[in-house]
Specification:
rod-shaped; 187 residues; 4 strands; binds heme C; two-stranded antiparallel ribbon; single chain; mainly alpha
Length: 187
């Protein structure tokens, strides 16, 4: 390596006894400097001026794929994505009515007014009046009190249908209704 004195060209002036050397910046530094400028320009053009060609299309495609997945999932769930929605489905209510007449009316009355079992048309529930709670009561039953666990007889889907029907009875005020039991449930 050359000595500094040999390499550096002294500027031809001295100010207050201070000499100035012209030390060129190391080439790696200069390379980096120009490199960042070139990169920055390219970046600016690609992302801000040309808006990255294809980015929009890519996003649209991804969104579409997501929507399709979601719809497929909803279709697999019977066209609705939450229990609440499934329980409001008029088809489920209609099918639940037949299930109720066959399996539940003997104890809860033809119109859900209650006899051996409680009134299912009022706002009062022994085991909770939320959709989840009612599904759980019908699924697991209350064996000690004579309410059958319907899980093995009806299966999950028919239980949802009969619960959809039970919920549709709310406030129907049938004749000979059994007095309310349990706590009031407000939704
Ligand atoms: C053998 C009689 C009997 C049959 C059949 C029966 N239940 Fe019940 N059910 C009862 C009794 C008794 C209770 C009250 C349990 C208690 O006091 O804890 C009850 C409770 C319930 C409850 C909870 C009510 C509340 O206040 O929390 C629901 C919901 C219910 N039954 C729905 C059904 C449905 C739906 C069917 C038909 C799939 C059905 N039951 C069939 C006797 C019956």
């Amino acid at each position: 390596m050359k000595k500094d004195q040999d390499k550096d060209i002294v500027r031809p002036y001295v100010v207050d006894g201070i000499e100035e050397y012209d030390n060129p910046l190391p080439s790696w530094w200069v390379g980096l400097f120009w490199g960042t400028i070139v990169f920055g320009l390219g970046y600016l053009l690609w992302f801000h001026v040309m808006k990255k060609p294809g980015l929009d299309a890519e996003l649209t495609a991804q969104r579409q794929a997501f929507e399709e997945q979601k719809q497929a999932l909803q279709a697999a769930n019977g066209g609705a994505d939450s229990l609440e929605q499934r329980l409001k489905d008029p088809k489920a209510v209609a099918e639940g009515k037949a299930i109720f007449a066959t399996n539940c009316a003997a104890c809860h009355g033809q119109l859900g007014e209650g006899s051996i079992g409680p009134n299912l048309t009022d706002d009062f529930w022994i085991h909770g009046g939320g959709p989840d709670a009612i599904v759980a009561t019908v699924t697991n039953g209350v064996p000690a009190k004579g309410m059958i666990a319907w899980e093995s007889t009806l299966g999950v889907q028919n239980i949802e249908k009969v619960v959809a029907y039970v919920l549709s009875l709310k406030g129907s005020n049938p004749p000979n209704a059994k007095a309310p039991q349990g706590d009031e449930y407000k939704d």
